[in-house]
Design a protein that fits this description.
194 residues, mainly alpha, three-stranded antiparallel β-sheet, 3 strands, elongated
């Protein structure tokens, strides 16, 4: 299978049997991109409207579309990431489930914003395009807030600094190493395939 990217046992392979990236790692690597792009696109859109700058406006719309596209692999790598970490000490399955629910709602909002942005680009010079850009200001803000909530709930799953409130002391580090957790997750995925 040389030259073909495929997924097996929690790993993404590029031909052969060499794991180039674990799906959980891909989730963590890409998860911040849609959030940052959405906020940046929203800020650019407001700036462009105040300045009446077409180039900046179109750039903001493209950023919304890219944010929606990047969110697709983020959503689909979330389940393998959850499987990998769900058995670790100190990890709450309720927090994982809540994060998944918030992430799915945010994903839908972001996809709607991305489609709106794409249509606004296609119909840029029309009255319909102006309506879509105005709609995107409101829906983009709602989407940005939803993505921020998704990022926050995701951070609460593993990052102790996101869990600390007031005088609460951080919990001790998990007893299992990441390698042990990865091996357990890979064994579980092989059992599921059989």
């Amino acid at each position: 299978m040389t030259g073909i990217i495929y997924r097996r046992g929690g790993c993404i392979y590029f031909g052969g049997n060499f794991c180039i990236l674990k799906t959980a790692e891909l989730h963590l690597a890409l998860t911040h991109v849609p959030v940052v792009l959405c906020f940046a696109a929203l800020a650019m859109q407001v700036t462009a409207m105040l300045m009446r700058n077409t180039t900046v406006q179109k750039t903001a719309l493209v950023m919304f579309v890219i944010s929606g596209l990047v969110a697709i692999p983020v959503l689909f790598t979330g389940a393998p990431a959850a499987t990998l970490i769900s058995n670790a000490p100190g990890i709450s399955s309720m927090k994982i489930e809540y994060h998944e629910q918030v992430a799915k709602a945010s994903f839908i909002l972001l996809q709607l914003a991305a489609v709106t942005a794409l249509l606004a680009l296609l119909f840029y010079k029309t009255e319909f395009g102006r309506f879509l850009r105005a709609t995107l200001l409101v829906s983009g803000f709602i989407t940005a807030v939803a993505l921020a909530q998704t990022a926050h709930t995701g951070g609460q799953i593993r990052h102790t600094e996101a869990k600390i409130t007031g005088t609460t002391k951080p919990k001790p580090a998990p007893q299992k190493s990441m390698q042990q957790l990865e091996e357990e997750a890979q064994n579980e995925s092989h059992e599921i395939i059989k």
